[in-house]
Amino acid sequence: MTEAGQTLVLWDIDRTLLYVGDIDRQVYRETFAEVVGRSAEHLPARGTGVTMPLAIRSLLLDNGVREVEVPRLLPRMVELLPQLLAAHTRDLREQGILLPGAVAALKTVQAQPGYVPTVVTGNLKPNALLKLEAFELAGFLDTEIGGYSSDNDHRPALVAVAQKRAQAKYGTVFTRSNTVIVGDSLEDVRTGLEGGAPVIAVASGKTSLAELQSAGADVVLESLEDVPQLLDAITAVTLERA
Question: Which GO BP terms, alphabetically (predicted)?
Answer without folding.
Answer: DNA repair
